[in-house]
Design a protein that fits this description.
The complex is a heterodimer of chains A (147) and B (187).
Chain A lengths: L1 H22 L4 H18 L6 H18 L9 H16 L11 H41 L1
Chain B lengths: L2 H30 L3 H20 L12 H4 L1 H15 L4 H13 L9 H4 L2 H11 L9 H17 L10 H20 L1
Helix pairs in contact in B: 1-2, 4-5, 4-7, 4-8, 5-7, 7-8, 7-9, 8-9
The chains are: A mainly alpha (147), B mainly alpha (187).
Chain lengths: 147, 187
């Protein structure tokens, strides 16, 4: 259940930041930073509301996911790609190594990994689509010749 | 290979090595805990990541460097965030959020100024250094060292991963890791 909540947080963080940054034209830095403040404040003032695991990790997952949403519109990412990157980010975060705990920027590094992986997955799928179209073309021509 | 090409190659390899290091350590940790599903997911991610590096246009052909006067705001952001995070006890997320928000309003001071419009990025990049926990950043000198190293990396990596989210965080992470190494060796 906790993992599920963190994954949802990741998706919301990534998509909301992109929306504020690109659609509301606030710029990437302000979108990410401004959205993190209410989340940080909430858990700063109400540390007992949720269990300690969620209180500690929801703000971190949220700010990490906002780094994904800082992507520029020139890169041409869709909301689906951002959502997928948010999911990947949360999964990597849940299994993250203790070695870099407390290192500044480690969330950003995870965000970059998950965004690149999400873009890689979509390229992989679009290529497969081309491949399948190519195969169906060959099939069609083959059967036409037979007739 | 000319100088610019060599610098870009160095920067891209540093980024890639850092990501590989993180993924390897995650696999190692999960192997010890016998979480094999996690290992499968991370290995798949590593494969896709390499594929992404090969196939997505991330490294722009032009060579450009960030100006020193702009990048020098990284240590400033780092110190300000460190103060809020550790000295005021606000925690990393809140501290980085506040510094980033203040930084993002700096261009509004003088809307026609080209210089001011470039400042939010280095300030937010510096704020990530200041997010580090007290165990990682024991002293102000550590924050300043990490800030200066990050400042150098930011200057050199202006035209790689252009507009990709997480770039600033990774730069800050490389800065913090290198300065941890320096402090570990010298102490």
């Amino acid at each position: 259940m906790n993992s599920f909540i963190l994954i949802i947080t990741g998706i919301i963080g990534a998509i909301l930041t992109y929306f504020v940054s690109e659609k509301l034209k606030q710029g990437a830095v302000r979108a990410s930073a401004l959205l993190s403040i209410p989340v940080g404040l909430f858990f700063y003032f109400f540390p007992q509301l949720l269990d300690s695991y969620l209180t500690k990790n929801i703000p971190l997952v949220f700010i990490g996911a906002t780094f994904i949403g800082m992507v520029s519109s020139e890169v041409k990412v869709s909301y689906i790609k951002l959502g997928l990157a948010g999911v990947l980010f949360s999964i990597i975060y849940i299994y993250n190594t203790n070695f870099f705990e407390g290192y500044g920027g480690s969330l950003g590094a995870l965000a970059l990994i998950s965004l690149l992986a999400s873009m890689g997955i979509s390229v992989l799928f679009s290529k497969n689509e081309k491949l399948s179209q190519f195969i169906s073309k060959i099939k069609a021509s083959f059967f036409n010749q037979k007739k | 290979m000319n100088k610019h090409k060599a610098i870009r190659f160095l920067m891209v390899s540093t980024f890639l090595l850092m990501q590989l290091l993180i993924l390897t350590l995650i696999v190692k940790d999960n192997y010890e805990n016998e979480t094999f599903v996690a290992i499968a997911i991370i290995l798949l991610l590593a494969f896709i990541l390499f594929y992404g590096y090969k196939d997505i246009d991330l490294h722009h052909e032009e060579y450009a460097y960030e100006k020193l006067l702009v990048a020098l705001w990284v240590p400033v952001g780092a110190l300000a965030c460190y103060f809020l995070n550790i000295s005021m006890g606000l925690g990393g997320v809140l501290a980085a959020g506040i510094i980033g928000t203040i930084g993002s309003f700096i261009p509004n001071l003088h809307k026609n100024s080209n210089y001011l419009s470039q400042l939010p990025v280095p300030i937010y990049c510096g704020a990530f250094i200041g997010m580090s926990s007290i165990e990682v950043t024991p002293s102000l000198s550590f924050v300043v060292t990490a800030g200066i190293i990050t400042c150098g990396i930011l200057i050199l990596s202006k035209n790689i991963f252009l507009g990709i989210g997480g770039k600033l965080g990774t730069i800050a992470f490389i800065g913090v890791t290198i300065s941890s190494l320096i402090f570990w060796i010298t102490q």
